Amino acid sequence: MFTTLVLQSPGPLVFSWGPFSLRWYGLLIGLSTVLGLFLARHLAERRGLSPDVMPNLLPWLVVGSLPLARLYYVAFEWERYRHGPWWKVLALWQGGMAIHGALLGGSIALYLFARQQRLNFWLLADCIVPSLSLGQGIGRWGNFFNNEAYGEALPPDSRLWVQLQLPDGSRVHPTFLYESLWNFSLFGILLFLSYRRRLPPGTLLGFYLVGYSLGRFWIEGLRTDSLMLGSLRVAQVVSLALIAVGLALIGTAQRRASRQEEGRAIPTQPLEKEISNGGSGDHR
């Protein structure tokens, strides 16, 4: 017998007490940050970095990624915000952030931190991306509680194994769930690669960009709330660009590692000893 799992959001609030309230979106972001910090610190220590690097880096990433994640979203949804009130532009608790904006801001912050601390940017990025993928997997459930980032409407007789029911009773593709599961799977792959072998710096970052972007390109095609640039879905265009960047990073990291291995190798040539009798005059 066929069974469909129907998901329905209980609402965005965890609890409310007087003027104070806790939203699922904020709670999940906080949980992702804590878990991600512990994991990144552990992976950094495995790669020979100081245990203090990741706690020191975290404020840089927060300051760099959150504002740009919001501004990126607002820029492509400007018609919703241009008439005010102005404070809605800053209303992170109401949702509306773009991961590609966060990636851009976080990358800039990471580069500046690496330069200041004289650390390898690519090595730091490799230690962070498993946490990033884990955080995305958790954070997508914030979209579920906010009833956002869902997909196209499903016909009444749809046999899709899991469906999201909106407050108006309609059922849609649970694209938040698709992306959450995709990110959790990517997290598992990145963590496996981190433990399996010590890859050249920049390789894991490349795998993350390719892996995440492949899933995002497919899932974005099902969504009804995509950020648009004319007739193009912005996330799909950016995903294609990031796939190319990721592949280039993997190839560059491998070539860089090969050159370093060649530079460390000691040439071994057979020692040829000329047999001579010196000044004895006996030359045969």
Question: Layout of SSEs?
Answer:
Blueprint: E1 5-7, E2 13-17, E3 20-23, H1 24-46, H2 53-76, H3 78-81, H4 99-117, H5 121-146, E4 162-165, E5 171-172, H6 175-196, H7 203-220, E6 228-229, E7 232-233, H8 234-264
Parallel strand pairs: 1-4
Antiparallel strand pairs: 2-3, 4-5, 6-7
Concise synopsis of the structure shown:
The chain is mainly alpha-helical. The strands form three sheets. Strands 1-4-5 form a three-stranded mixed β-sheet, with no helix packed on it.
| Percentage of β-strand residues | 5-15%
Mean pLDDT: 89
Give the overall silhouette.
Answer: globular
- Poorly predicted tracts of residues: 271-276, 278-284
Q: Specify Rg, calculated over alpha carbons.
A: 26 Å
Span from first to last CA?
98 Å
Query: How are strands sequenced across the largest beta sheet?
Result: 1-4-5
Order of helices and strands: EEEHHHHHEEHHEEH
Descriptive report:
A hairpin with a 5-residue loop joins strand 4 (162-165) and strand 5. By secondary structure, this protein is mostly helical. The strands form three sheets. A three-stranded mixed beta sheet has the order 1-4-5, with no helix packed on it. It contains eight helices and seven strands, in the order βββαααααββααββα. It has helices at 24-46, 53-76, 78-81, 99-117, 121-146, 175-196, 203-220, 234-264; strands at residues 5-7, 13-17, 20-23, 162-165, 171-172, 228-229, 232-233. Helix 1 (24-46) packs across helix 2 (53-76), helix 6 runs antiparallel to helix 7 and helix 7 runs antiparallel to helix 8. The longest helix has 31 residues, at 234-264. The chain starts with a strand and ends in a 20-residue tail after the last helix.
